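Input C-alpha cells:
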C-alpha cells in the first residue's frame, strides 16, 4: 500500500463536508507522539542537572556559561519547539543545554538523544 493511500475517501463529516483521511498523517502523528515522549524523558534528566548547576552556583555572574539565554528555561523552549513541529530546532537546543554548561548526562539519556537524532535524521555523536 502506498504511503499516500487514501482511507475512507468521501466520508461525510456530519456537516456535509467530505473528509479524506490519509494514512501517512496517522503515522506522522504517532511518530510525533513517540518523539515528544523521548524529548520529555531526556528533559527530565537534563532539566534536573541544569537546576542542580544553578543551585550550586548561586547568583550567576554575567560571564558564566549558565548566564547564556535559553538555559535556565530550556525545557520549556525545547517543548515549545516540539509542539510547533520544529523538532530539529528543539533537538539543537537540547544539545546546547547539555554542551554549554557542560552537563554530564547518563548513558540512558545518551541513548534517548541518539534515538531522537535517528528519528530526525540528524547527526549526533557523544
Amino acid at each position: 500500500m502506498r504511503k499516500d493511500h487514501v482511507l475512507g475517501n468521501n466520508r461525510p463529516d456530519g456537516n456535509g463536508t467530505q473528509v479524506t483521511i490519509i494514512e501517512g498523517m496517522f503515522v506522522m502523528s504517532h511518530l510525533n507522539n513517540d518523539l515528544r515522549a523521548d524529548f520529555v524523558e531526556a528533559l527530565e534528566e537534563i532539566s534536573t542537572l541544569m537546576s542542580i548547576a544553578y543551585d550550586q552556583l548561586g547568583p550567576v555572574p554575567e560571564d558564566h556559561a549558565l548566564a547564556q539565554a535559553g538555559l535556565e528555561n530550556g525545557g520549556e523552549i525545547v517543548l515549545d519547539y516540539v509542539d510547533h513541529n520544529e523538532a530539529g530546532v528543539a533537538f539543537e537546543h537540547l544539545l546546547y543545554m547539555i554542551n554549554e554548561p557542560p552537563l554530564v548526562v547518563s548513558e540512558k539519556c545518551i541513548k534517548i538523544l541518539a534515538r531522537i537524532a535517528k528519528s530526525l535524521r540528524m547527526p549526533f555523536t557523544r
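Residues 2 and 23 are 9 Å apart (CA to CA). The helical segments are 23-57, 74-83, 87-99, 107-120.
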